């Protein structure tokens, strides 16, 4: 978990500039959890000064809290203690310092942000948009007021972010790299190493006697975190769907009859035609073309012979054909029989010759014949109205302070409750049961709530289906009692003890090898039944081609001195590898244009971020930065004491 948090905090761009403020604003508003990114008014310790601007501990604390909320979107089990232990306070303070320094530097060189640009960025944030997808002033004011923000504070933060982006973006996007700088890296890729690897498996050493109760108890106490079940929640929910409102959606006979009358000519007898036509500029030429078609020549062939092309109108009623031609043409076409030839008929475009390809007649539908179609349409319409009305009534009850139980009782909902589940929707007591994907949004809503919060309405499907969600109780993270998992603890104890024994045996072999004994001889002298050492030769280029999928022993071989041996643990307590590096053959890419070009291309992908970091460091030095280490330590200590609690 700490590794995840460190990766989150130490991203390349994250070292350069504060988190993109607009993204943070948008995500946090969507999650409903901004508590004021620009707090003010409270007196507090100054943790840093940036060119005369003070960064206070309250600001730093709130930024760290916001970082925790962002991290929990990706890994729900991250807690404040882990974030602090991974260097979160220092990293976030550095981002804040860099952001302010960039702003001060931008102002110093005469850069400014136009208010219209800031307005445009605000309007683009989804949390400030109405149902029509456009910026809504009332929604904007309500959203920032609920979270203790002010328009001026928001504008200031967005303006600062824009200045930072303008300054840093050109360097981040840079990819120029001199050939002489790429040469050492290209040569490094050609470096070749040869060595040997042998695994001392844990299974090859004596397993020892079964552990005693005291040993198991001590082992369990030492490894409580390993057996800790993450926080679980029991979430109550009731799903409201169009299907569930079917009784309210069935149309009455009177409604069906009314819809039939309102349909007008929709169910009257109808006739539709498919027609092909040729438009000719000269009447005599049109007469000749019509004669050829009436004589049996296909209209397409007759048109082609005259240097023209026939157009088509497919399956149109008279009104539709008139809309695409004119009324006279439509009247003539609908007066002819199927297969008949019409025209020439005059229009502003010229003279039209038409061929009636197909006539489709539909008899009138009586009320009973139209009933199935009308019932389906009315049912859909009434279901939409019913579910909208139900959601409006429930929303009103929630706004009036109704509890989940009261809402469910009043609306006659089928209330259910989940088992104690994790944020992933898994019940740890039923490890073989997967999460129910239909409840994914219900679980998500339950884990954004706090004990005592009002119920939430969560949209589930495009047809209007929604759920009323309430948090029943929170089961804090806690280790399982040892009595429940004794067998599991015993297996882990035995495996770890065997791993330690394997390390002791591997360390003895290591000492002999580093003392001058050949690896194969040292392994043989150990008396362990293990395979002979495996020779290995590889280049750094081959490792790079694996794109990070390099076995740890091989990776270690490229991080050690020649004629030396080192140990590295096998995964899953599987034993220990002894790695011996026999020789290093340096690479020389001075005459290899392809290798140099490849190295330049690879380095170019990250050189922009390095340029940006160097630029940011220069800006920090230019404006002047000082830190109050004691105040930072107090913030770190206070936040670490919150443990798994998310500060609000």
The separation of the N and C termini measures 23 Å
User: What is the strand tally?
Assistant: 17
Mean pLDDT: 82
* Helix proportion range: 40-55%
How much beta, percentage-wise?
A: 15-25%
Tally of separate domains: 4
Give a summary of the structure in a few sentences:
The protein has 648 residues and is an alpha+beta fold. It has 26 helices and 17 strands.
Structure notes:
The relative contact order is 0.16. With 648 residues, this protein is α+β, with helices and mostly antiparallel strands. β1 and β2 form a beta hairpin. α6 (88-108) crosses α9, α9 (151-172) runs antiparallel to α25 (593-623) and α13 (253-262) crosses α18 (367-399). The protein is built from 26 helices and 17 strands. It has four domains: 2-175 and 609-640, Orthogonal Bundle (Triger factor/SurA peptide-binding fold); 191-228 and 485-585, no CATH class; 232-245 and 380-476; 270-362, Roll (Chitinase A, domain 3), CATH 3.10.50.40. The model is unreliable at 1-43 and 643-648 (pLDDT under 50). The protein has a four-stranded antiparallel β-sheet. Strands 10-5-12-11 form a four-stranded antiparallel β-sheet, sandwiched between helices. The protein has a four-stranded antiparallel β-sheet with strand order 7-6-9-8.
